[in-house]
Protein: Spore gernimation protein KC
Organism: Parageobacillus galactosidasius
Amino acid sequence: MKQKMAITLLLLLCATVLSGCWSKKELTDLAFVIAVGIDKTKDGKFAVTFQVVNPGNVAGSTQRGGGSGGVPVSIYKATGDNLVEASRQASKKLSRLIYYAHTNLVVISEEVAKEGVDGLFDALERNSQFRSTAMVVIARHYSAEDALKILTPIDKISANQIIKTLQFSEKIWGQTIHVRVGEVINDLSSLGKAPIISGVEIVGSVPKGKRQTNVQASEPDARLNVNGLAIFKGDKLVGWVSGDTARGVLWILDKIEQTSVTIEWKQKKEAAAYKVVRAKTSVAAHMKKGKPSISVHIRAEGDIGEEFVSIDFANPKQIFALEKKAETSIKKEVVKAIEEAKKAKTDIFGFGDVVYRSYPQQWKTMKSDWNDRYFPQLEVNVTVEAFIRRTGLRTKSYIFEQ
């Protein structure tokens, strides 16, 4: 009997400290923001665009473009002296509470990025709803508002299309990179690593891309493409790199999973395609007579995807020579990326962080002038090892058998 009373008393005591549902929010009272776009008005205020999901137009038809029931998202815009004020101002246009827990994308206009992004990320980090795993992109040549208003096929929500395109493009091509809010904040707070963020641009007619007919045609009037890497110095955008130079950045950052490298052979610049299937980059710092230096070693393995000149793949000497040509092509991309970063005087590779980890005492005297003094003069030694593991189902193309 005493044991039962003790258990009952214990349960009653536990009940007194339970919080219950004091902070509950009904789904019908929430506006789920999938993406946020940040622009500037002519008078210098922030213009924030909210891409809000229309649940009834998305559920059950995620693979059918715009759908016949209406557009999958609604766009709301508000202005303010800061992001918090703009978010509050949006309540005058929305019949629901803005909810950021499902925000997966932040689009920043090129204009805002050039002025500086420190204040933006401070506001995002302080918001208890906002996730640091949300991706960040720079709207290149267009406003963030325009980028979020484009309706996209396949993925009904344009924010999801941008995110997936970034992920798959990085994985199989390696000239763009998906960067999260938390990673940008870490880079901004580091003296030895500057941020890089992928760009997104609109190809086609912007006015037509905002209409539902854009996703009802086999060839949309406007598309969203990811293109180029925005390089920052401190919190300001100072330039862009694209193409093979952008891939050179990802080689150094050890972000290359798969890609295709063109090999020169017999005085033909586009002689063969080397498909990289795995790669690994290691970076080390050295100190000699008080001067830092960096060594970058890249190891790549891949297959021959196609050939445009006669190559005897049964001959080990030719295979070895092709590997050397692939190494030269990769090294050329990496060296070009380093030159562009030095020209902009911004360490986007994190070489400073490598020096700090290896030589913390010496780093104390260099960190304040790293980007302007030490990094532009930094000696960087690049070595590449490339291996051809497979040549496909034929050792000699049918084109050259006649």
Observations:
- The longest strand covers residues 268-288.
- The longest helix spans residues 316-344.
- The chain has 14 helices and 14 strands.
- Residues 62-68 have pLDDT under 50 and may be disordered.
